[in-house]
């Protein structure tokens, strides 16, 4: 069972947020929370809060299941470019330089891993 959480119009550049998102992509939820807690980047507290929101959404959908037993991992994390505010900064000789204040949208999907037992087949001699 999947759970999705979205964070829109975060006032930081998508490049800075992707640095943090790449750290936790594909990791278990408990491991990702530990990484985000001690990462000094500016996007880490925002992603930590988003991950806790996704956990809450998962628990609301699966009321009787325990988070510890579910073996949750981050299935997908996507950082897209958001709205860009364009400003002018005064420059020498009466010119103006454009300042682009970027924002981003983050989408986080968590899912539970199902461990499948594999059955070995003995086809080594039969195939020849």
Automatic annotation (TrEMBL):
<dbReference type="InterPro" id="IPR036394">
    <property type="entry name" value="Ribosomal_uL22_sf"/>
</dbReference>
<comment type="function">
    <text>The globular domain of the protein is located near the polypeptide exit tunnel on the outside of the subunit, while an extended beta-hairpin is found that lines the wall of the exit tunnel in the center of the 70S ribosome.</text>
</comment>
<dbReference type="InterPro" id="IPR047867">
    <property type="entry name" value="Ribosomal_uL22_bac/org-type"/>
</dbReference>
<dbReference type="GO" id="GO:0003735">
    <property type="term" value="F:structural constituent of ribosome"/>
</dbReference>
<dbReference type="InterPro" id="IPR005727">
    <property type="entry name" value="Ribosomal_uL22_bac/chlpt-type"/>
</dbReference>
<dbReference type="GO" id="GO:0019843">
    <property type="term" value="F:rRNA binding"/>
</dbReference>
<dbReference type="GO" id="GO:0022625">
    <property type="term" value="C:cytosolic large ribosomal subunit"/>
</dbReference>
<keyword id="KW-0694">RNA-binding</keyword>
<comment type="similarity">
    <text>Belongs to the universal ribosomal protein uL22 family.</text>
</comment>
<dbReference type="InterPro" id="IPR001063">
    <property type="entry name" value="Ribosomal_uL22"/>
</dbReference>
<keyword id="KW-0687">Ribonucleoprotein</keyword>
<protein>
    <recommendedName>
        <fullName>Large ribosomal subunit protein uL22</fullName>
    </recommendedName>
</protein>
<comment type="function">
    <text>This protein binds specifically to 23S rRNA; its binding is stimulated by other ribosomal proteins, e.g., L4, L17, and L20. It is important during the early stages of 50S assembly. It makes multiple contacts with different domains of the 23S rRNA in the assembled 50S subunit and ribosome.</text>
</comment>
<dbReference type="Pfam" id="PF00237">
    <property type="entry name" value="Ribosomal_L22"/>
</dbReference>
<keyword id="KW-0699">rRNA-binding</keyword>
<comment type="subunit">
    <text>Part of the 50S ribosomal subunit.</text>
</comment>
<dbReference type="GO" id="GO:0006412">
    <property type="term" value="P:translation"/>
</dbReference>
<keyword id="KW-0689">Ribosomal protein</keyword>
